[in-house]
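Q: Give me the 3D complex with nicotinamide-adenine-dinucleotide.
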Amino acid sequence: MKVAVFSSKPFDRAFLEEHNSSYGHKLVFFEERLTEQSSTLAIGFSAVCIFVNDQLNSKVLMELSENGTSLIALRSAGFNNVDIVTAGELGLTVVRVPEYSSYAVAEHTVALIMALNRRVCRAHSRVREGNFSLEGLLGFELHGSTIGIVGTGRIGKIIAKILNGFGCVLLAFDPSPNSECGSFGVKYVSLDELYSKSDVITLHCPLMPRTHHMISAEAISRIKTGVMLINTSRGALIDTTAVIEALKSGKIGYLGLDVYEEEADVFFEDLSNQIIQDDVLARLLTFPNVIITGHQAFFTRNALENIAKTTLANITDFEKGQPCANEINAEIMMR
Ligand code: NAD
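A: Here is the predicted complex, encoded as structure tokens.
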């Protein structure tokens, strides 16, 4: 199939081209994100291949449909950036890569917890300046600490497995509890109990209308003072403005983010020679107890290989008219 690959970086191109020798699709790479402004680039392509910050709202989907595109192949697990209902109404098929980096994301989550707790980034900069003082570097032992895992699907389950090894007390909330988690010592509780008892809260549920801003000012009022909050899932699970107020008051003691609700215009680009225009992000970057990484939790060799292979196989399934296990539609979303 003739595929327009949007938001493509050199690493996407390298992995997709390497594996495409077994599939033979005609891949054309665009650095641009697919948005209302760039959708004409897709004219003449029967498939578009997109990543997490491409924005396929109803207007873009209608244009794609009118211009002959019939397949949207996501290189990600999350699909909150595609209006799935409209895609279905227009007869567009949407496929994704449901699992490519669960270990990568879980391990990065634990890296954020460890780096925040033991102030690794501050210590590293300090020591490089010849300052060996321990002031401000005091941590706590994860062993015996209570970790609240919100969402125990593929990634949350692995977090539970890893942190069980640390000897943490594990609480979880998930409307569909995972039967495997019991063997890692996970106790399912209400969201209220998880908020009030956890020393660390880590988010691993999808972004949907009902989880949008689930960490609101009201939710923050129910959490333990000094909590460590980690989000490697999707930025808009958190009301960032409310979180900044809680960081200022000390209600939130540590914040680790790999995702940010307004990341689309910033992440994945080198803006080091520019002035950051996003005042909320700029404020977040001033806190000594905040670590932000730029949506890199998935970014391992293993994951890029899995993304490339699954994406190309999904496109081939569609081309051959075969059922694709990785298709996503409104019905699946409701489950
Ligand atoms: P998954 O679908 O396997 O698991 C999600 C879990 O969340 C499910 O068990 C589901 O029942 C649960 N859930 C749904 N609604 C909930 C709610 N209101 N409260 C609590 N739990 C709820 O997904 P996954 O593969 O574990 O991925 C989790 C998220 O991680 C994805 O949605 C994606 O947005 C994000 N992700 C981020 C990166 C990254 O690089 N930062 C990479 C991959 C995935």
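A quick observation: The chain has twelve helices and twelve strands.
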